[in-house]
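#structure-requests
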Amino acid sequence: SETTAIRLMTTGVTLSDDVVKRLTKIGVKMTTKPTECTHLVAKGIVRTEKFLCAMSVSPYVLTEKWANATATSGKLLPEGEYLLSDSNAEKKWNFKFSEAIKRSKGPDGGSNLFKDVMFYVTPKVSVDVKLLKNVVSAAGGQVLTTNPTVRMLKGKENRYIVSCPEDRSIWRPLVQEGYTIYSTELILQAVLKQDVDWENKECVVA
């Protein structure tokens, strides 16, 4: 039946044992693997590893009310009435979440967003490398922690450097060769918005 296909994950929300028990009875499976979820229950639009990785599988992103109301009624309620909206986050990152979800379902979004793209991430970036690896890999790309050299990049397409001012000694020679150095914001915003904006000055270190 339809319900066996529902795999629910939460981020920043803890459902009560009773709600989980009732959801399980209807056939909802709980998961902690973002790339397996069909439904994500969240408090708001957040850039947690779970939330960003889940963007690659374009789940329904719902408020906690959906889980509670579904548990109470004993049947699956239509997702459309419980879609998450978060105008503060949309304003902050300047995008429409409903459009991002739409893009994630398109041929260039979701698990194809970073298809064939390789990011070299330098040691001092402030975002956890494990998070970056998982988020980029869910979006179809790869993160390497080898320090990039001109030789590695020359003549190779789709290879980019993600760094920070503290690692200037690593990327200075690359800038002299005309390479752009991006900040982790490039990755985080791209996945959240499902749109890679290579020209966004906010995401450029040098």
